[in-house]
Amino acid sequence: MAEPVAKAFYRRLNLRRGASLAWASLPLSFLACAFFLPLANIFLLGVRADGQWTTAHLRAVLSDPYVRHLFSFTALQAFLSTLLSFVLGFPLGWFLTCYRFPGKGLIRAFTLAPFVLPPITVALGFFLFFGHTGYLNNALRSAFGLREPPLRLLYSLWAIVLAHAFYNAPVFARFIHAAWNAIDPALEEAPSVLGVPRLRAFFTVTLPLLLPAIFSAAALVFVLCFLSFAIPLSLGGARYATVEVGIYLYAQVYLDFSRAAALGMAQVFVTLGLAYFYVRAGGLWGGRQERLRPRSTQPFLSRPAHVLWIPWLLLSALLFIGPIGSVIADSFSRPLAGKPPGLGWYRAIFSREQSPFIGTSPLGSILVSLEVAGLSTLLALFLGLGGSGALRVLRSRVLEALLMAPIAVSSVVLGLALLLAFRRPPFAYLSDKFALVLAHGLMFYPFVVRIVRPIWEGLTPSWVEAARTLGAGRLRAFLTVEVPLLSQALLVAGAFCLALSLGEMTAAAMLSQGELVTLPLSIYRFLSARRFGAASAMATLLIVITVAAVAVWEWLGERTLRAYGQT
Amino acid sequence: MARLEVENLHKRFGPVVAVNGVSFAVEGGEILVLLGPSGCGKTTILRCISGLERPDEGEIRLDGHSLVHLPPEKRDVGLVFQNYALFPHLTVEGNVAYGLRHGRHRTSRKERKKKVAELLALVGLSGYAQRKPHELSEGQKQRVALARALAVEPKVLLLDEPLSALDAALRRELRRELRRILKDRGTTAVYVTHDQEEALVLGDRVGIMREGGLEQVDRPEELYLRPKTPFVAEFLGQANVWPARLLRMEEGKAWVVLAGEVLKAEAFDVPKGEEALFFFRPEWVEIGSGPFVVEVQEAEFLGHHWEVRGVVRGLPVVLYVSELPHGPLSFQIVRGLLLNPQKAVTAEE
Lengths: 567, 349
Prior knowledge:
In chain A, 75% of the residues lie in helices and 1% in strands. By secondary structure, chain A is mainly α. Chain B is of the alpha+beta class.
């Protein structure tokens, strides 16, 4: 018989308190050196001048009309992006919830893609698809015999908002689909029995029940759009710069670090406030309802009225498939030296020859990206495993907040912190490649914790106990029982980190000096130089890797849970 | 064959006292069963012996050597878990071989294979070596768990309700088999259960537990025939416990007044003063004639006999009769035991 009180103790690893603290201090001390100190340093930089405490930088920054414009524009575009994401995402969530059709699992899986799809590939896709000579404009021109491109979308607020919606509508869809699926169908049937028309029932029952999910998604999407970097940088240009772009410009272009630091500081406060709201908003509507039976779905097109969905589906397909399809199509079709390329652009990006457009050889860029991604994935896995282990043993909210802190800091600010830290010893002896590895490790290990921790905590404690009564020491039990049981979760987390690191551009742009030109940076530079073919080939490479990572996630993720989660 | 001693064991979880001063010894090759209702601290005792829990106070010795400061992997104490805790990522073979591969006494691959085959044959699972745990039935999982624990040849084997997840028929079959295996190998074992029948069949001796304490440790028939406390009397089998007045002691027997009648009773724990409890089993009576007449309230037919519940002179009684009488049911008590009311706590608590 399991005594209930003893149960709490089962969860502990049978480590003494001292050993637990030692375990927890490993990831924490690493964070202290690589994250909290550099971050504190930029805060200091923002409030000190010539050895004196000062608010001058902050005041200067906050009273600067350009900075004010940056903040208000960032908020405006984030708001509009959130709104458009909702408008596009809600029907998709509805569609996924209420209908069944072949390939539904695939579509549901790819609502995850935006989390890992590199922004620069989306930006490139928008150029190729919505650009003045892009696929869409060309098609419209030839269809209606126009001389001028009918859609003038690029270099405007709307390009940014549309690209953000491309990213975040699936986030809304995912949240809404999950929440809608969890509603007890009886609650939605009750109004019709009571004689309430369907539309009215939707607004009085379904929508109120979905509101928590909608608000959570909206808060998350707003933060993501507020901190977006690659899309405004490449689609907006200097006129439509966001705060993130502003910090980057101060630090990397004008080399005004105090200003960059002060602006970064201001931004940290704003994002912390938003993050707080997000957490609170999640807690406000905590209640979950019991669902007695699963929701029934209709086969799509089983009724004539379903035809009304078709125009919307086509429009969505145009928005979601168009840009990505354009990138892939462009990499195979854009003429190279006046001839049809075949695999020519791919040969070109695997060349060792120095390219003047990106400042290094394309192959070198790919290799350095792989190196950074591999190392930072290892780092993220180690930190994630250490962090999960520490939280498993200590279960302290303070520790959790400290360990998850890197997720609350924007990539540009983290990049700035590490850029400044790496200008001084002891970090200065390491190359900027390691700065980027460190940045990516810090940025992505919270995801590892998110994936690994619940599975680790779900493992039955008696497995480790059994190993120990059979004569295995604590470490050996960890290596022979817990690690194999976590291996699938680690594989999923690793694939996820690898894809994120390969596609990450913000920290890379902040830390890049000279040789360190990663894949997304190369794409950005090719794009800026209007060398679309090479950019498309590289972006296609990234898209393939991303799709593979999502596939691993979907395939292994569910299996992991099914195999060990409930045992 | 190893001798296990537990002395004055205490374990608290926050405000809850799980184990409160428990002492017992298990001789080499003996099977001791700890029997008690759920939540009485049985499992905690096993976890302290195996080293998974650290006692607040007390001593645990194996062949005279203290175990208290050793980690679980260095104790030579095996544990069969209630939920078996088979490693889901390993095959049956991998599970059974785990201790030989990663434990203290590592052996070569060849020896391991031989040993695993031997153990699987012992538990009747030859041919299942390559199965994964989720492909086994509950009974098969139980056998694998036993084989895994035996593989490292622990000096003491602890078993935590290993049969509780099985259905009744399988449980009966497996407990016979379990006793045979443990006896054949001469394993010293501590077995925890809340199933009385299991305890009586399996144990060389049985310890009855109540609220973190050990009430009585004895051979099963002693416990049944001569319980030392009202709790033990009522916990094992059916019992009638009536208040009585002690008149005097005579040659180790007690004369008591019971519901107005004067009777003689066995007495081992003589209470101070007059107040006493008189205990008799339903089968310790003669039906048909006698001073006690039962007002029958309910009768259940159990095949071999009827179980009758009723009231005698205001006192509740349970009796077994071979057929229901047409007239009044009267009986006399042929055997009884005097119990000390100072230790009176009923099993219902």
